[in-house]
Each structure stands twice: as C-alpha cells, then as structure tokens.
C-alpha cells in the first residue's frame, strides 16, 4: 500500500480506536480556553458549535473496545447498547474533556438519556435538541429557528464570546465542504467499491467525529485522491445497500465480515449526521434561516424523522437504483425502536419493486459473526444468481 | 427421655435445597442439603431429616466433649461413625434402587428382552454393592455426597460393561436408571438415625483402634442416649424460590432476600453488602448493622450471569461444574466476552474454540462477564460497602471470586470480602434465625 | 391470606363501575355503527388526545392503545402479537403496536367483539412517545388514509414555555383543524369546542378530587389498579361529554361515602380491609395478568396511593384544567404537560412529591419492556428517589400486553420480598 494512504488510514484507525478522546484533549490543549461539545447521532447543527470556536465531538457509543462495568447498572436488558456505553464513557471520566452535550431527538432512549445526564452530572451543560417534525416553514420552521437561535446563544455563552453572522456563514461554508467531499467519497465508492474497502471508508469517515471539520475534509480528500488510484481489480461481488445503522454503530469487524462474505457496500446510513443534507446550505444571507430551511427541505430521510408524504422506503428504493445495487441488508441494532419499527415499511417498499433483502441485528459490541457471515454469504450468492438469471 | 429443642430453617433453591438446625442457644447443630429435583415437598423433607440426623451426631459430640473420658477422641470416633452411617444409608438406598429398577423393568415395553434386562440389572446392582465400602473408606474422595451422583457414576460405568446391544442395550439400561432414581429420591428416608445408628456403631467398634475399643461401654451409652433423645422442632421457617410451595403456613415463610441478609449478618457481623449468586438468580442486598435489609436488587428475567450459565458451559465442555473455576485460573490472557446470553453460550464457545482461543482464556473471560453482571446489580442496589459477603454456589468457584475481587477493588477500592465455606447455607441460616426469633416471642418479620 | 386483607362478602358492583362498563360498551357499539350511520372516525393516542376537538367536529375517536390494552385484558393480545411478528415485526419493539397490527390483520374486530371501522384520518398526536410516530406511519400504509401530524415538543426541563404553546397552536391551526374540517365536512366551531372544554374542566375537578382522596388513611381508593378505571373516561373518548361529567360525579359520591364509612378500595375480591403498606407506583401496569398482578398487592395489604401512570393523559392534579376561554392554547398546554412528555428530572420531582404528600411507605417501579419512554432511566430514578426521600424502592419488570414477559412467580417473589423488607424495617424502627 502507498505509504501516504497508509499514514492516513493509520491516523483514522487510531482516532477510531481511541475511547479516551485523546485527540479532543490534544486539540483543546493547543490553545488556551478551547472547548469541546459532544453530540449524539443523528443530526445536530454542528455549525453553531464550530462558529463559537468550539470543537463538535460525535459520541457514537463505545463500540466493541469498551468494557461495560458501570453502564449496565442503569439499563434494563431490553434496551439497546449505545446508552450503556455512553454512560460508561461518562462515568469513567472519559468524557470529562467535553464542555457540554447535545442529545438530538433520535428516539425515547436518547431523549431520556439527556435527562439522566442532567441528573447524573449536575452543573454540566446538557441540551435536548428537539428536531421539528413539522416541515412547514411558518410552523416547524419557526420552531426550529427559535431552537437554533437558543443553541447559538448557549454556544456563545459556553465559548465566552459572541457568534457573529460572519462566523456562522464561515462555518456553514466549512461544513458544506466537508459534506461535499463525503458525498464525493460515497459517489466514488459506489462506482468502484473495490477501491474503497469498507474498513477504510468507515475509519476515514469516523474521524469526522473528533477532528475539526477543516482537517477532516483534508483527510477525506487526500484519501479519496489516493484510493482512487488504487490498483485493486474489480471483483464479481453483489452490490448491497446497508440500512439501519444511523445511531448505534456496528463493530467494524461486522462490516468487514459483510465485505468478505461477498458484498460490496455501495451505500449505507452509517454516521448519517456527517452528511445530513442532500445539498448545500446557502452560504450567503441569514445563516439561521438558511440552516433552518436546509433542515426542512434538504434532510436525508431516516427513521427518526416523520415522512409527511407517506413515502416510507422511497429513498431506499432510490438508493438501490442510483447505486445499481442488487439488494438491501437491514442491519439494525437490537432493540432499536426507530430502525426496527421502520423495517416492515421498508421491506414492503422493496418488495413492491422486487428488490431482494435480508436482515439481522447486532449490538455495538457484538463479537461473534459466524451467523452473519453465513447469512450475508448466502444472500450475496443468491442475489448474484438472481441478477444473472 | 430427654428432649432437645431445635429450630429449623429451610432454603428451597432452584438447584439445591438446604436446611439448618439450631439449638435453643442459636448454635448450628445440623445441616442438610439435597438436589431440589422438581419436588419441593420431598426435598424439604429430606433436608429436614438430614439436618436432624446431623444434629444427633452433634449431640453425640457434645456428650463426648462433656465426658472427661471421651473428650479427645470424638473427632476420630464420630468421623468413623458418620462414615459407617452413610454407608448404611447408601446401602439402603441401593436396595430401594434395585427394587425400583426391577419394577420399572416390568413395564410392557421391555417384555421381549425382559430376562436379559433383569439379568443385567442384577449384575449391575451386585457390582454396585461391592463398590460401596470403597466409597466410604477413610481415604475415599467422593465427587459428590448425593446418592444420585454417586450411584449414577457407578451405574453408568457398569451398565456399559454389562450391556449388550441386542438384548439389554446401554440406552435401555440408562432409561431404566432415570426412571428408578426418581422413585428412590422421592422416597424420603424417615427415621434414618434410628435405623442406621445401631449397625453403624457396631461397624465402627468392630474395626476401631484400641483407644476407642477401651471406651466401648461409655461410647455405646452416649450413642444410645442420643438415639433415645427426642428432637423437638420448636419452629421452622422456609425461604427460597420454592417457598410458595413449601408445605407450611405463610407465617413461616420469609423471602430469600431477608434470609440471606440475616444469614450473612450471622456469619459475618460486619457485613453491609451481600452478593448471592444462585442457580437461577442473582441478588444484591444491603443490610444494616443488625442484618436488616435496607435495599436489594435481583437479576431481571434474563438468567444470564447466574450460576445456571456456568452449568451450561460445563455441560457444553463436558466438565464438572467444580472444574470450571480451576481451569479458568490457568488462564494467562483472558478473552473479552461481551455477551452472557445463556441461549447463545454454546454457539459462542464453539466459535471461539474454532478460532483457536484457549479453553482457560475463554473460561476466564466468561467468569469475568458473569461478575460484571453482578457488579451492575450491586450498583443498582446501592454499591458495595465494607464488609462485603459473597454467598451462593458460585462463591465456591475460585475464578469467579478472583474476578469479583478485581472488579470490586477497581470500582470501590479496598473492601473486605467474606466467603464462608458454608456460604451455601446462608439463606437456610437466616430462615432458622427467623424461626428462633419467632420462638423467642419476638417479631418474626 | 386474602381473607385477612380483603372482605369477600362485600363484592359488589359500584354504580360507577356499572356506568363505566356501559360507557365502554356503548362507545364500541357506536364505533361499530359508525359506517352505517355515516359518521367519520379518527384514530389517535391517549397522551395529548384532542377528544373535545374531534367531538366538536362530530368525529368519533378510536384509540389503538385502548384497543390493545383491552385486548390484553381479554387475553386476545398473545395471538395478535404472534400474528404481527409473523408478518415481520420485530420481537424487540412495542407490543401495543404489534397487538394493534395483529388485530387489524385478524379482521379488526375490537375487544368487545364489534368490528371496528377503518379510520378516516390518523391524528398523530406525537406526545411523549417516539413509537407513536412509527405506529401511525405503519397504519397509514394499511389504511391508506391521511395523517395529521401534531408534533408536541418535549419538555426536557419540565416547563411549558410560550414558544412551545405557539408551536402546538400553529400546528392545530395549519395542520390539524384543516384536516379535521376536510374529513368531517364541517367548519371549525370554536364556540362549540369551548362548551365541551367547560364540561371537561368540570369532570376534571371531580377526577382530581378522586385521585387526592388517597391522601386519606385508610385510602378509599387504589390509585393504580383502581386508578386505571378512574382515568378511563377522562383519558379517552368521554372528555367534554355530559356522560363523562356524570361518571365523575357518581364516582366522587361513592368515594365520599367510602371515606365516611372508613372503607378501603374495592378490589375484584371485595373491599380491602387492612392497609399495611401505602405505595406509590411508577410505570404502566401489565394488562394480560392485570388481576393477578393486583392480587399480589392487595393480598399483602398493599394499597397504591399515587401513580404516574394515571398522569399519562394529563397532570390534572398539578393544576391543569382545560380552559373554555383559551380553547386552543389550553389544548396545547394539555398535550405538552402529559407525564411521558416530561423530562426525567421533572418525573423524579413529581414522584418525590407523591411519596411525601401521600405519606407513602414505599414505591415500586414496574418497568415495562414495551415502553422506552417510560422505562429508560427508571433505574436512575429509583436511586434518586431513594436518596431524596429515604424511602426504599422496589423494581419489577413486565410488559404491557405480551404475556411472555409476565412471569408471575418472579414478580410475586419480588413484591413479597420488597414488602417484607418494608415490614422488617418498620419493625426495626419500632423496637430500636
């Protein structure tokens, strides 16, 4: 492998494996008074944190590297895994590096976790970010503008300064660049997935959770440039879209297992918040208005957000078509309400279009992949036969 | 006839049933333990009888201690007396087994090969009888004291030897044993001391060293006095998972939480936190300075992390339950195991073995995973205060104990960890103490 | 033991029970006749329900949660859940949803045996429960009917802010009312709505009086197992109706009489005689073994004096009333203030007040698998409440309508152990 690409990947891998958030501490130590604000999946307006000169830090659970010692004491056995590891991270002091936490409205688990945070860590900044489920600019838009303004004020206060309109427009521009390069990466992978193995793509993307966006954009761009010149030859594998992974992240080994079982992953909803908008947020004009409008009109479709048109599954069918996928793998965390309640609707949409699919569940610390390997392998073989027939 | 008043506590666990007998001063004078099987009533009868039998041996000991001529030899004498008693008891149960086997073989389905089957059974039982003295010799190490376990081991081995695939196949013989052993186990042996103490005493004296033989008359009268003593059960309290089905009134039933709290307090007076890991549930209990429970948590409906989980693992690996811990301690590099799901335990194990992971390392990881579940429960109940007492079957597992010690140290700092060799009797002891309080006229609750 | 705590000879149907039974029967019958009578029906949820608004358009509400819990009580839910799981619904998710979908797939015959009409509109009052959103998205696929979405923002800080109210009122004006007008073919009549809200407030006064009667010792009511009957009319289709007003008037009279006579609550086995423990309960009940569950309490002499479940359809006892003078705003405040829409710290505050104000000996959390909105954080709530009040808490686990998650031996064991602990502590306090 090209040493330059190896360097990028090794950096990304280190960041991914670092459950102590050393990179965040390093960033903070580079200048006095620097602050960092954590956020849970799926979407928060990171621009507002960035514009205040603070570092947005994605808290996506503890993966399979964190032993849960204290976290299980707070959750019954029928609750998904991400709140356990998130509490574990906090109680073990690993999140002391953060100066605040934002909990967007993914589901009732994360919602209640915000209240637990308030009780467990009195004095720390916590905000529940209630994303509007009404997409009328005068109604949900008004509500969201007000929320955005309140978050902006909070962030300015935490940072100990003001967020000027100019700061905010600048942050929007920087995040537009970041989302753009990620979209380019997805596009490139869809065209030649053999050049962009999932382990690499995931690690590089995931670095966006802890790196400043400018630095992350550079990392993704350099990776894209170098990986695109790779010499791997196309292999005959099935092309699949993965869905259900927008919150609790699967262990990397699970994604690698799917690839080894014969699937090229050509689209997915991993780390969805990093590329939440399908287009650009306007960089001129009223920044809050622009962010609010973008949320109402350019958000990706996902289970946590109401679909007013009743077209559940439309986006999934589109993703299959646009990426010339052969099938869909539903890969959802155990006990994930949004993903699992949504699944029957998505299945129905796929079946109307005769798109093959299979499904299984995971937890972020799943360590056994034999069944998944078997199932994905069979699925991959069968859809290849299907497409040849 | 003299009368000795006793108080009984019975703990009906899902795996084993235990009894404790106290004398009027609150001293433990007898214990009983048996497999619970599915019949709580029989199990509680068996342990009750066993605790009373042991009480009588204890009374013999007291009598000898009080007699200047006998004090000093009680250990040797009673040791031999008990061994001979057990042998008698075992032989009696063997007899029952033989007749139960015979009856079972009368079932119509065995008609075609009945003769051959009965012949094989006869030969097996004969050989089993011959092995009995060996089991109860002074130097014998028994894997288990339960009749079922001892008899099953002998039977299976002999059945293999005496079976023949045409007429009396090994499978047929095994099936007969499974049916017959239930009959034996469900026939509670009443008045065992009365029946067996005499022959046991004769056997003891017949083979005794000179220091015992010289005191034959005094020993005979000591044993006879105890045989003639009435053990009057003043009160009995039941606890444990099967307590709802105990054959006594509700006033005499206490939750295992209260009993474990009080029992642990009685064993270690400074106990503030109790962890009990039994077959099907795990309990974390906080008690105050008088053994009164202030808070508790039990595992949720999922049995992951309970003793039963280790049972599955042992079965899966063809090991005895008591061997697991020792094997785990040979680990040099514990494997991280995230799931303690009982349902998937077997599959996970096979998967890991196929990956080339070493058995001790996997087992060490499993023990740690179980103790992590216990840590969660402890945290839910209010943490771990000094002193910390660990009870239940799993407390006898060295790997579980060392995993727990590490986690406690890491999360709560230094805590004194108490484990009694008698920890399996904690609940029964608490129940007996409640019986004592009731008999004292105090508040039973 | 029940002979000790419950006097069996007094088993009798109180007039309020007869009334309620009749209300429910009539309600399902009216649903059954809705098609032939040309009435339009709207499905909606209990928390944040807009019953008066629907009724002001002459629309009939259908409440899938109530159908599910009624199916649970009548032992129909296991098959419905199995049917939904067979159709691909995950075993991990809410059993209300699966029970409802299973019922639909099995012919949509309601719990009383009357075939239910397909809804003309799904009023998605998205209040305090994420699952509601998916539930009606699923139903939309089945019924192919319009949905009116009402996003009720979550009160993370437990306080209603003016902008919350504005947001909800705006949605009522721009989304909900226009769709109700469309479905009903009638214009919105604010005066009519106000009249109904006045009736609501009247019933609400009596309802609060009933809940607070549990402050008496002995308590004349069980505020959880009995409470679920008392909330029935006011949380569902009868708010803003004269039948609702009548029900609470009768109920209040009965309880006044019980207090005068010093009587305890009526249980399925008669009047509870001896109240040994006063408890507060957090979390919904189990419906499939409801009576068995209740019996575990009254057999031991445990009476529930306050519960959070009886607040899922509004926190009336903390002062909220529907207000005929500000109809839409008060509807908005109603939706916002429902128990499950409150942040965890506010829920703990409320339970703490109940433990103190109702002089409870203990509190029990029934954690149900189906409901993350309720359940996530309950273990922390338990610790916080114990720390703040010094009163020990008990924790049990079950489910709403999935009988597979109700293990009687287990739950009984826990409740008994817990109550014996309370008893022992009490004894220790006396003798020490």
Explain this structure to me?
The complex is a heterotrimer of chains A (389), B (445) and C (432). With 389 residues, chain A is α/β, with parallel strands linked by helices. Chain A has 14 helices and 8 strands. Chain A has a domain of 137 residues: Rossmann fold (3-Layer(aba) Sandwich). In chain A, helix 1 packs across helix 8 and helix 6 crosses helix 11. Chain B is an alpha/beta fold and 445 residues long. Chain B folds into 3 domains: 143 residues, Nucleotidyltransferase, domain 5, CATH 3.30.420.40; 101 residues, no CATH class; 151 residues, Nucleotidyltransferase, domain 5 (2-Layer Sandwich). Chain B is 54% helix and 13% strand. In chain B, helix 3 packs across helix 4. The mean pLDDT of chain B is 87. In chain C, strand 4, helix 7 and strand 5 form a beta-alpha-beta unit. Chains in contact: A-B, A-C, B-C. The interface between B and C is medium-sized, with 23 and 26 residues.
User: What's the CATH architecture of the largest domain in chain B?
Assistant: 2-Layer Sandwich
Strand count, sense and barrel status of the largest sheet of chain A are: 4 strands, parallel
CATH architecture type of the domain at 31-167 in chain A: 3-Layer(aba) Sandwich
Largest sheet of chain B: 5 strands, mixed
Tally of helical segments of chain B: 15
Beta strands of chain A, count:
8
Helical amount among residues of chain B, as a percent range?
Answer: 40-55%
Measured by DSSP, the beta-strand proportion of chain B falls in 5-15%
Detail the poorly predicted runs of chain A: none
Q: Within the CATH hierarchy, at the fold level, what is the topology of the largest domain in chain B?
A: Nucleotidyltransferase, domain 5
| Tertiary shape of chain A | globular
User: Kindly state the mean pLDDT of chain A as a whole number?
Assistant: 95
Instruction: Give the N-to-C terminal Cα separation of chain A.
Output: 37 Å
> What integer value in Å does the Rg of chain A equal?
20 Å
Low-confidence stretches of chain B: none
Structural class by sheet pairing and helices of chain A: alpha/beta
- Tally of individual helices of chain A: 14
Largest interface between protein chains, with number of residues from each side = A-C, 54 and 50 residues
Task: Return the CATH class of the largest domain in chain B.
Answer: Alpha Beta
